């Protein structure tokens, strides 16, 4: 499963009601793959390949960690505590991902 496939899977699970009134950019920097940004705005979610300079939070991990979190096999908090996931920017927004993209 490529990083693009994982991001598309996340987008398909997007919970629009949880995103009402939000205007956020989640940047995913994948150490062994492509970078993507998820732009959440007023109940919509758009995917952008590459880097977004307006990211509110940047999550740095490898593709295996991203896949595990996206499929529910890996707990995001455990990945963070174990050093497999790093966050830069507003770390509290990273907690919103589980609400916005339920597994």
From TrEMBL:
What SUPFAM superfamilies does this protein's entry cite?
Answer: SCP-like (SSF55718)
Pfam family of the protein (one): SCP2
An example of a Gene Ontology cellular component annotation for this protein is: cytosol
Q: Which InterPro entries match?
A: SCP2_sterol-bd_dom, SCP2_sterol-bd_dom_sf
Transmembrane segments in this chain: where? none
Q: Where is the SCP2 domain?
A: 15-101
Give the protein name, as stated in the record. Answer: SCP2 sterol-binding domain-containing protein
Q: Which source organism? A: Aquipseudomonas ullengensis
């Amino acid at each position: 499963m490529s990083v693009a496939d994982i991001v598309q899977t996340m987008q398909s699970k997007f919970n629009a009601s949880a995103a009402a009134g939000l205007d956020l950019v989640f940047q995913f920097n994948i150490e062994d793959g492509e970078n993507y940004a998820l732009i959440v705005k007023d109940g919509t979610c758009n995917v952008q390949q590459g880097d977004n300079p307006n990211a509110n939070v940047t999550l740095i991990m490898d593709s295996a960690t991203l896949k595990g979190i996206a499929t529910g096999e890996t707990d995001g908090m455990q990945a963070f505590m174990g050093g497999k996931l790093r966050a830069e920017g507003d770390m509290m927004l990273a907690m919103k991902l589980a609400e916005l993209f339920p597994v």
